[in-house]
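User: Quick one: structure for sequence A, then sequence B.

Assistant: Sequence A:
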Amino acid sequence: MRERPPRAFEDLIVGETRRSASRTVTEEEIVAFARAYDPQWFHTDPEAARASVFGQVVASGVHVLAMWRQMDHAINGDIDFVCGVGWDNLRLKRAVRAGDVIHVTSEIIALEPSRSGKDRGTAVTDYAVMLEDGTECVTFRSINLVYTRRSAASVSASA
């Protein structure tokens, strides 16, 4: 049985910020992702995309969010999440292009214990996918349920 992540709801702190490692986005991954999941011509065809408003292929917004998920897991994978329940204020502010170097930032902005039970709480986190110069490409607020220590203890006791 896989161990649960060590940080419970009670371990989280409003104002806590984290930053992921950087990664360089390649044209090959942009095109491959788009051909599988978002086959718009300005994502899949480098030649035709030169005539687009972007002047080259750009990553699909869904692709940028998939990259966010990987980078977020690297920095927040130690949190014992139940699940995500919503995103607010999702904004695609700047296209991600081949050669861009991106990273993710997170900041916990609110914590609320569950009103219906003591085995979880709600953590609200502001996220950004950013370029190295600080330009925001994607921003949103994520609402997530997080297990409490009590929940982890009850699972351990029943195992």
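Sequence B:
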Amino acid sequence: MKKQRLAAQARLNLDERFAIIGPATRFTPPVRGWIKAVREALGITTAQLAIRMRIKQPSIIDLERSELKGSIELATLRRAAEALDCTLIYALLPNKPLETTVRDRAREFAQRRLEPVRHSMLLEDQTVAEKRADASIDQIVRETNPRLFWD
């Protein structure tokens, strides 16, 4: 029970932080990549950036290409950011609040668990009240280890 409360609090804390950050679309990289965009905006040449990073000039071109391909290493991207007097921000931004994701998974979990009951009740010409099933989602989220929702 304590782990469920801790997970719920962690979700709440992260959801609050994500809300401040805003939508991921705010951070869509420029067409030519962040390194090249910032470098050019600052008026820094590839040779000048290479000196600041203590690497050879052709490596800067390789860096910019690897960023575009998505194969650049975080440590290298961080070094480039520092050389450009920038801060690298690395985050995983959920597409919807974490609490919503957990509730959706809890609902699926509950529906899977209720399916055999629904089936046998239908055979007896009875139904499961949907409102009652939805009301139990809060209880399921509170009382069930969220790890079970992902099986």
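The mean pLDDT is 86. The helical segments are 2-21, 34-42, 46-53, 57-69, 74-83, 98-123, 130-143.

User: Thanks, that's what I needed.
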